[in-house]
Specification:
The protein is α+β, with helices and mostly antiparallel strands and about 575 residues long. Among the domains are: about 90 residues, Immunoglobulin-like, CATH 2.60.40; about 210 residues. The protein has a seven-stranded mixed β-barrel. A five-stranded mixed beta sheet has the order 2-9-8-5-6, with no helix packed on it. A hairpin with a 2-residue loop joins β17 and β18. α10 packs across α11.
């Protein structure tokens, strides 16, 4: 009898154990499906005067983190206690020492090609400024991971003059997105090596390094990379942060340093727009912006800013620029100008133009619009080029198709500043598809001002750019045949000399700019051209002033008596 009861008890205990195991298993299964909440950082990204300890917490699991901007995983550093965050500038330079980012740093290639560097880019010879980048993830017992959390910390920067009064932007992305041989968007990489493998050899016949192949020359969404970006204003307030896409931007300047970048908001990154930064209108929502590294105007980075600012009241489309100093994966990466891109959303924000109503061309292709929009653009060009504009009736037809004042202003500006990267390059026009009562929405073609970095050279201050351009630009040559256009153009050139770009106005602008940017540009020189100094920057700014003084005298002598 006792044995029977013992058997029943054992059976019941077994059933209870199985039930408990089932409940536990169900509980484990349920827990394994639960999302893992992100790591919480005790201190938010920003600028701090003194070192501090950073704590990280999460609801369950262990915290793994990295300090090199790579994405953390189960093999990364294990968080066991508070981490001391101090000025990281004394840490070894890492990404700034990569030579494959620019053909001028590849001395092995230059030697084979028999070429000399043009701009003198170099890797830094001393420690550059750095931020501490923490990337952390929580991983539970089942291997489930939280989203990655980033912390970017600038310590002791209140003592560094190079950042006084200038905004800062931090871009953090997995370093392989930038520097990997195959997928890195910032390097010569596989794209360059493939040209050698295919038998093309090192191209000594190409004098412009910007025409050489490289990963950084590739375009399209395939060459866009995800990045976490923080914008800080000059008072060190965090004005915007989020996940965006980045691409290399530019033409021949893609080979240069620092490279320009476009920033894209996309649903897949969880950021549908780039909301109102101080530079833009309060209610503006843009899908992309540009970080301009200066291109061929790297000595001063003043060219686009000067023209777009001083010519803002002319009848052309100009844009605004705001200086930022970039930190890329925690390392200082130079001075940039944040500016909107001339895309459809820009016209919507600026002019209230309806979605789908903007056509924009850029160097004879459709930048905004459809392939069908190329026909009215070509029709407009043929109207000018194929008709004798000495006939006032033909000229009147042209004036119905284009905003003639915009054309006069645009040509006067480009001619005045002696832009040698024009008129075959850097041409952009826009118009609306359907006319409205909004400003400039009458369906006429108007000019867009962009990329004047190869201008304002004192050696070209006495050059006849009217004659030069009439031989290189059939459209301009045809317009110049009309006596009314010619007279108004000459008068506008004199206006440029006496008003828009008068020596007094330019001197004041350049002096203020040089005072504001001197330390920042000196810091960039140390980063990318370590044998140059702040004085070199100031001298380059003086060259700009010299050009405008000389150009004023030349224009007044050549056209002063032709003004109506």
């Amino acid at each position: 009898m006792k044995r029977r009861w013992r058997g029943v008890v054992h059976c019941l205990l077994g059933v209870a154990l199985v039930a408990a195991l089932l409940v536990y298993g169900l509980s484990l299964s349920k827990d394994s499906d639960q999302p893992v909440t992100p790591v919480r950082l005790s201190v938010e990204s920003g600028f701090y005067d003194s070192p501090f300890y950073l704590e990280m917490t999460c609801d369950r699991g262990e915290i793994r983190y990295t300090l090199d901007s790579t994405e953390p995983d189960e093999h990364s550093l294990l968080y066991t206690g508070p981490i001391l965050i101090e000025d990281a500038s004394g840490n070894p330079n890492v990404y700034s020492m990569i030579e494959d980012v620019c053909i001028e740093l590849r001395t092995d290639i230059l030697e084979i090609a028999g070429r000399e560097p043009k701009f003198g880019f170099k890797t830094p010879v001393q420690s550059i400024d750095k931020a501490t980048v923490i990337r952390a993830v929580c991983i539970d017992a089942f291997g489930n991971r939280s989203d990655i959390v980033n912390g970017v910390y600038f310590v002791g920067f209140d003592q560094k003059q190079a950042y006084d009064g200038i905004n800062v932007i931090s871009i953090v992305t997995n370093p392989e997105n930038l520097f990997d041989f195959e997928k890195g968007i910032y390097v010569l990489g596989k794209t360059f090596d493939d040209t050698l493998v295919e038998g093309a050899g090192v191209p000594p016949a190409l004098p412009n390094f910007g025409n050489w192949a490289g990963n950084y020359k590739n375009r399209g969404k395939e060459w866009e990379r995800e990045a976490d970006i923080c914008f800080f204003d000059a008072e060190r307030n965090l004005t915007l942060s989020g996940t965006y896409g980045i691409r290399i931007q530019g033409g021949a300047s893609r080979y240069m340093l620092p490279k320009s970048l476009n920033i894209f908001a996309r649903k897949r990154y969880g950021t549908e727009s780039i909301p109102a930064l101080p530079l833009f209108g309060e209610d503006w929502q843009l899908h992309s912006v540009n970080l301009n590294g200066g291109g061929q105007g790297v000595d001063t980075k003043i060219h686009d800013l000067l023209v777009n600012t001083l010519a803002a009241d002319c009848d052309i489309l100009t844009r605004e620029y705001e200086p930022y100093e970039l930190f890329l994966d925690g390392e200082y990466w130079g001075v940039y100008w944040l500016t909107p891109r001339f895309k459809e959303d820009y016209f919507q924000n600026k002019y209230g133009i309806r979605d789908g109503d903007v056509i924009e061309t850029k160097v004879d292709h459709i930048e905004v619009g459809t392939d069908e929009d190329y026909r009215p653009y070509k029709d407009m060009l043929r109207l000018i080029a194929d008709n004798d504009l000495r006939d006032d009736e033909n000229y009147a037809r042209v004036c119905e198709a284009v905003d003639i004042q915009s054309w006069i202003d645009y040509y006067a500006i480009e001619l005045y500043i002696a832009n040698t990267d024009w008129p075959t390059n850097n041409r952009s026009l826009w118009r609306v598809r359907r006319t409205t009562d909004q400003p400039d929405a009458d369906g006429k073609w108007r000019w867009v001002m962009f990329d004047v970095n190869l201008s304002m050279n004192p050696e070209r201050a006495d050059d006849d750019f009217v004659g030069r351009t009439s031989k290189r630009d059939a459209i301009f040559g045809s317009l110049l045949d009309n006596k009314t256009f010619k007279a108004e153009l000459y008068a506008r050139l004199v206006d440029m000399a006496e008003d828009v770009f008068s020596p007094e106005r330019v001197d004041a602008f350049v002096d203020e700019y040089a005072a504001r940017m001197r330390h920042a540009m000196g810091n960039e020189y140390m980063r990318f051209m370590n044998d140059r100094t702040e004085e070199d920057f100031v001298n380059s700014c003086e060259d700009i002033k010299t050009f405008f003084r000389m150009r004023h005298d030349y224009i007044m002598e050549a056209y002063g008596d032709k003004k109506k």
